[in-house]
Write a structure and sequence with these properties.
The protein is α/β, with parallel strands linked by helices. Helix content is 26%, strand content 24%. It is built from nine helices and 15 strands. The termini are far apart.
Length: 281
């Protein structure tokens, strides 16, 4: 009996299995065109909008969440953030912003237009100003009706920045529209600020990020009556110290029959504007 050369056998098996692998169906790549993705960043907020290869990032979370923003953007093959919206200057919305700016090309940075007494005296804010002066990106201050084209859609600023020392209420509120689908983000605007925004808000929208991480002091009944969203996403951490999302806010959604998703339960929430459907990841 002829002895089998073990090395030859091993090489043959490797060739067979490698050839078979080429015959196996591959998992199709996820198509994120015309999507709004609420990232699972813990007790914080960060939302990525993609349309025709262009990207808008609304806020940049904080460290310690389930999703590292730079890593996730790299996973999504992002090379450039065409529009970076920093809704307001609280650390749970801006902590990873410098990392994003240092790792990706940035087209435009949109920030609230603050009165002089409300401008933060921080390294982060000063770095934003300095980078803008050095030509790394265009810096634009929010004003009502300002529009930015993003792929097939348009991102629009809703309302001017009020002169207030309540930093939550200086949040830049925005809508993103693709064809007949509309997404609205009011960041941490509280109910009194929501009241001021009502006249600027669209009606019967597709997707809404609950204000202030699902706090009872936001996503008021008046706001919901105006927006009448098909579905709501809530960004917060499990067992957080604030008790978000508050039961009062969830009851308002339930009473109106509005389904909702919470990032700490689902992970990232991906809303497809074209089909008005959701996947989680």
């Amino acid at each position: 009996m002829r002895k089998i050369n073990l090395l030859s056998l091993f090489l043959c098996l490797c060739m067979i299995f490698s050839g078979c692998q080429g015959l196996l169906p591959r998992q199709p790549a996820v198509d994120y065109n015309n999507t709004v993705t609420m990232l699972d960043v813990g007790q914080a907020a960060s939302t990525l909008i993609e349309s025709d290869g262009e990207f808008c990032l609304i806020d940049a979370g904080k460290y310690g969440g389930a999703t590292d923003i730079v890593s996730y953007l790299s996973h999504r093959k992002v090379k450039k953030i065409d529009l970076l919206v920093l809704t307001h200057f609280h650390y749970d919305h801006t902590s990873q912003a410098l990392d994003v700016i240092r790792n990706f090309d940035i087209g435009t940075v949109l920030i609230p237009k603050l009165s002089e007494q409300n401008i933060p005296d921080t390294y982060f804010y000063k770095s934003l100003m300095e980078d803008s002066k050095n030509g790394y990106y265009s810096l634009v201050y929010a004003q009502n009706g300002l529009e930015f084209t993003l792929g097939q859609g348009v991102l629009k600023v809703l309302g001017d920045t009020p002169d207030t020392d309540n930093i939550n209420n200086t949040s830049v509120a925005t809508s993103f529209t693709v064809n007949n689908a509309v997404y609205v983000n009011t960041a941490d605007c509280e109910s009194d600020r929501e009241q001021e925004l009502l006249e600027y808000l669209p009606e019967n929208i597709s997707f809404f990020t609950a204000g202030h991480h699902g706090s009872s002091d936001a996503t008021s009944q008046r706001l919901l009556d105006r927006l009448n969203p098909s579905v709501v996403g809530i960004s917060c951490k499990a067992d957080n110290e604030y008790g978000h999302p508050h039961s009062q806010m969830l009851k308002r959604l339930t009473d109106m029959g509005i389904p909702y998703y919470i990032t700490y339960e689902t992970g990232n929430i991906v809303y497809y504007m074209d089909t008005q459907t959701i996947i989680t990841e």
